[in-house]
Amino acid sequence: MATSATPASTSSEPRIRWSGSGTATRVGEPDRGPTATGATLDRWPTDSSSRPRRTSSTGAADPSCPSGRGVFWFSGRLETSQEWDMSTDTTAAVPRRADGGADDAALPYRYGAPLAAEIERRWQDRWAAEGTFHAPNPSGPWADPAGIGGDKVYLLDMFPYPSGSGLHVGHPLGFIGTDVLGRYLRMTGHTVLHAMGFDAFGLPAEQYAVQTGTHPRTTTEDNIRRYKAQLRQLGLGHDERRSVATTDVEFYRWTQWIFLQIYNSWYDEAQQKARPIAELEAEYAAGTRPTPDERSWGELTSVEQRGVVDSHRLAYISEAPVNWCPGLGTVLANEEVTADGRSERGNFPVFRRSLKQWMMRITAYADRLVADLDRLDWPDSVKAMQRNWIGRSEGAQVRFPVAGVGTPIEVFTTRPDTLFGATYMVLAPEHPLVDAITPEAWPSDVDARWTGGAATPAEAVAAYRDAAARKSELDRQENREKTGVFTGAYATNPVNGQPIPVFVADYVLMGYGTGAIMAVPAQDQRDWDFATAFGLPIVRTVQPSEGWDGEAYTGDGPAINSANDEISLDGLGVGEAKRAITDWLSARGGGESVVQYKLRDWLFSRQRYWGEPFPIVWDADGMPVALPDDQLPVELPEIDDYSPKTYAPEAADTEPEPPLSRASEWVEVDLDLGAGPQHYRRETNTMPQWAGSCWYYLRYLDPENEERFVDPEVEQYWLGKDPARGPADPGGVDLYVGGVEHAVLHLLYARFWHKVLYDLGQVSSEEPFRRLFNQGYIQAFAYTDARGAYAPAEEVVESTAPDGTVGFTWNGQPVRREYGKMGKSLRNVVTPDEMCERYGADTFRLYEMSTGPMDVSRPWSTRDVVGSQRFLQRVWRNLVDERTGEARVTDAEPDVETLRALHRAIAGVHTDFAALHYNTAAAKLIELNNHLTKTYGSTGVPRSVAEPLVLMMAPLTPHVAEELWALLGHEGSLAHGPFPVADEQYLVAETVEYPIQVNGKVRSRIVVPADAGIATVEAAALAEEKVVGLLDGREPRKVIVVPGRLVNVVV
RNA sequence: GCCCCCGUAGCCCAACCGGCAGAGGCAGGCCCCUUAAAAGGGUCCCAGUGUGGGUUCGAAUCCCACCGGGGGCACCA
Q1: What angle do CA A271, A276, A280 make, to 5 degrees?
Q2: Nucleotide nearest to A416 in CA–C1' terms
Q3: Are A399 and A539 part of one and the same domain?
Q4: Which residue is nearest to nucleotide B59 (CA to C1')?
Q5: Which nucleotide is nearest to A994 (CA to C1')?
């Protein structure tokens, strides 16, 4: 039983060439690599023949791995691996019969779930024992100079949050997809880095802790273990040594360190980059940079000096309106608040409150974050969302003086060309100038509509502010009728000296621009609506296009009514007029051109327990002090009560109270931070969940490094800029796969951090993720009964009525089908565990990959999984005797038709794998196997066809492929190749059949030699019987010959 | 309201740069194997590409309009 029936020789068929390295390499002529097939592989350029051979893949187990501390990944399963002990028994590839009971006794080696389970577990153990997927580094503990080739590929999945409910079949779609690509690339000679970690801080573990008293770390670690077990059984080729969790103390130590890098930096606008804060202090001290109030640096007290410096930091404390969510007991980032003013998590109301919080100065990078999108290979939709979120717009800042008030009203406008049409102004209700400009009494001739019925302007404003504050975000959105009230004040339009009334209205938002606008009703619909409601004048300053019958005209056109004694815009187009008036304003000090962003600074503190503590303490002056590197990590203290103080969801006036503030022994510390021993209080907020995910991809590169967050040489190798991709290449992960839901949050924050690290010289790459791919989702059907309750989807029966309509019933009751997510509450969850048990991981992987291209969402259908199982069963049966478990391949020469089918498949799968079109790759393999079944089903398949088929299956169904490869007599794993390369001679047919179209309709066909020239084809087509008949003696007007395709005769 | 993506067989999906609409799977019909069963073997069937125009010798593919589905943004000055 130890060896297969057929000799363990390699193919005797010389026409297959292999790429990569491996036992079957035989080279008749120089290996041209996958590109020789005409495949479009520009993403993964390779010349695989020159690839250095990977040593750790085929040889003995990696000494650093088997049971030592390097493997903390599936450590719970290592006992099992000793049971099989595959690392020492390389000949035991013949499957042991599994006692599943489902197999027919006469066919003990039929490929089914029990056999698949046995094969899968055995190969997973062997891969782990041999370190098959360990990726080498250029330096450090895993340095392997021989394994470092030129063609490295860093594949990355968006790492999961290990939730308590485990994985359902939708979760691993992307993980399997990257694994297939990784396996393909490894087999074609690339050096692939693929690892998986866990984004493990966050609310659910904390909420569970609050409910049960279980420490969040316990829950988190249990969940991670469960995830790892679930992922392991899928056979993902990850380098398990590189797995990290954001909650590992050794990981968040570096999260804290990066925070300090950001804290200890400022943004130099002149150089457009972050610089160490010490350089700013030096500029102040040397007097080359003026202090805000023009005093000399020495005149400032040390607290004042620190205040000035702190105000420049990229991480800073700010007392500003933030999103306070009493229901969660924490503040939230703008990105975590939904459009209707509720928390993304928990759906609690969110209130704007002024609170002292940590902020990150992401706005300093707004311009670069927009501009560098052009350098990324990302989906357009994600780029568009980021552009939209950053909201860059160019315009002018214009000052409108108010009589009797020292400070003019500043507005931002994208349409300075329409200044002559500005007939009133609006301030946001919260605008700081409102009180200053509001006079004691109404002007004598005030319009009754403007006062809101109040006796004085102050009363009117107060009443309006009250009403505005009471309005929820939802009200504001649903009811867009323009409301507002006159402040009683007039400002002066700087271009024509006209006094224009100043209103307060909530359609102007304090959060954007300056919180004040000049209103130009003729060219802005919102202003038009307001002006009509309040009887304000409307002056057109852009000539609407011919036939315009709308209200506000926002299109292009010549300026009109736009002249004063010094300047005339009349006749100029919008663009020219903008430039002209901005120049005029700048010259007179009335304004200047500016760029405005919607992006706000990132609110970085949370009142939670289960997050990274800040490496910050507060001193006696109430100022923050950064801890030195040698004080890291700042570990989370053990506390009794993990809950932040939460409040009634509507209790807007409450104060956040972080759980850590109650750990007084931890909070109160005496430290010597250079100025002698002093008493400090620790910062008690924690970082938001996004912190760890901002840099985890860097830690995968070098997770055991205790000196640095990542070794520079290692970072350069895996992420560095690649000149071969052109001068604009920003570097970064070669392929990042995940759902589109992170389009602005995680992906924007991570880009920001990466750019800061780049500016500070800590990384060589300018962007974290060079290429991004959004996978689709696996959706599912759910079924509701008459009462609207969900029925278990598994038990719903589909039935076709006599009239052909399809219906669904559960327990005999009709149910209604819905399409959507998979989830416990919808009672339609299917888990990968169930699928592995019923069919095996290979079947499950193949099914997920064959139902459609990676980026398309599709419904899950358990019923269909059997199709993938049948395919594997057929391949197995073609290559293995189901009674003996021995290979039944032959050494016969394959016929030419088979060779053509084989090489067509080889050429096709290269293209498909590289393009992530796994569904079509699978189809080609099925097609090839169907051909083999037909041709050799009864006699046994020639080895020279069986081997490449097995190898091509390996990325999709690695376990069964490894098993077959071993049964065919190969000792080593096929994980590092070889991979077949198509032979051109079998891709071109000797003859070509041309369809003949007459006036675009196919009328006939001819067969000509493949190398026939256009003239020959044309002559043959025109001589064809039916064509002659159709022409009926007429001369064709035109004959189009598309080489290799068709002939079209136009009559 | 604005922007983006997608509509091909009963279902999931193929079709390279405009060139014969069909690769693959599911479901369905029939036949075979089997004591029986199917997660066995074989074979067959089904659409003319959401609708209407246009460009072209030729359109699933390019353009326009509309319909349907999904997503994003939403008083951003």
Answers
A1: 75
A2: B77
A3: yes
A4: A1000
A5: B20
| A251 CB burial (10 A radius; 0-12, 13-18, 19+) | buried
Of A561, A596, A631, the residue that ends a domain is A596
> A301 CA, B33 C1': separation in Å?
96
Backbone angles phi, psi at A402, to 5 degrees: -120, 125
* Residue-number span of the structural domain to which A786 is assigned: 778-862
Closest nucleotide over all strands to A859 (CA to C1'): B12
Output the pLDDT for position A1019.
Answer: 84
Q: Which nucleotide is nearest to A518 (CA to C1')?
A: B77
Q: In this structure, is residue A284 part of a structural domain?
A: no
Determine the Cα–Cα distance for residues A953 and A11; give it in Å rounded to an integer: 18
pLDDT one-digit tens code per residue, A410-433: 999 999 999 999 999 999 988 999
* Distance, Å, A649 CA → B73 C1': 27
What's the pLDDT tens digit per position in A1017-1029?
888 888 877 778 7
Q: What pLDDT, on a 0 to 100 scale, did the predictor assign at position A974?
A: 95
Our measurement of CA A949 to C1' B27, in angstroms, reads 28
A1013 lies in a domain?
yes
- Measure Cα distances from A756 to A213, A251, A762, A962, A998 in Å: 39, 19, 9, 45, 65
Which CA-bearing residue is nearest the C1' of B20?
Answer: A995
Alpha carbons A278 and A386: distance in angstroms, whole number = 32
Q: How far is A361 from A605, CA to CA, in rounded Å?
A: 13
Nearest nt to A103, CA vs C1'?
A: B39
Q: Is the domain of A938 the same as that of A1012?
A: no
C1' (B10) to CA (A800) span, angstroms: 11
Rounded to an integer, the average pLDDT of A621-649 is 89
Give dist(CA A870, CA A848) in Å, integer. Answer: 15
Distance B20 C1' – A785 CA (angstroms): 49
Query: In this structure, what DSSP letter does residue A697 have?
Result: H
A922: the nucleotide nearest its CA (via C1') is B24
Same domain, A489 and A573: yes
Is the pLDDT score of A14 beyond 70? no
Residue nearest to nucleotide B15 (CA to C1'): A920
Instruction: Pull the structure tokens for residue A606.
Output: 């949370």
Is residue A978 domain-shared with residue A999, that is, in the same domain? no
pLDDT at A545: 77
The mean pLDDT value for A356-385 works out to 90
Do A426 and A571 fall into the same domain?
A: yes
| 3-state secondary structure at position A816 | strand
Q: What is the pLDDT of residue A804?
A: 53
A676-733 confidence digits (pLDDT tens): 899 999 999 999 989 999 999 999 999 999 999 999 999 999 999 999 888 889 999 9
- pLDDT value of position A76: 25
Considering the domain boundaries, does residue A376 fall inside one?
Answer: no
If you average pLDDT over residues A35-62, what whole number do you get?
A: 34
CATH number at residue A478: 3.90.740.10
Written as one string, the DSSP assignment of A147-163 is G--S-EEEEEEPPPP--
Q: Are A350 and A330 in contact (CB under 8 A)?
A: no
Total of domains in chain A: 4
Backbone φ and ψ for A1043, nearest 5 degrees, come out as -55, 130
Per CA to C1' distance, which residue is closest to B23?
A923
Q: In the sheet where A677-682 sits, what is the strand order?
A: A624-626, A616-618, A677-682, A668-672
Instruction: For residues A964 and A976, give the distance between their C-alpha atoms in angstroms, rounded to a whole number.
Output: 16
Supply the DSSP string of A898-941, one letter for each residue: HHHHHHHHHHHHHHHHHTT-HHHHHHHHHHHHHHHHHHHTTT--
Taking the CA atoms of A483, A485, A489 and A490 in sequence, report the sign of the dihedral they define. Answer: positive
Which whole-number Å values give the CA distances from A203 to A327, A346, A655, A824, A1044, in the listed order? 13, 10, 19, 19, 61
Same domain, A835 and A953: no
Chain B: nucleotides below 7 Å from protein CB are 3-5, 10-16, 19-21, 23-27, 36-43, 57-59, 71-77
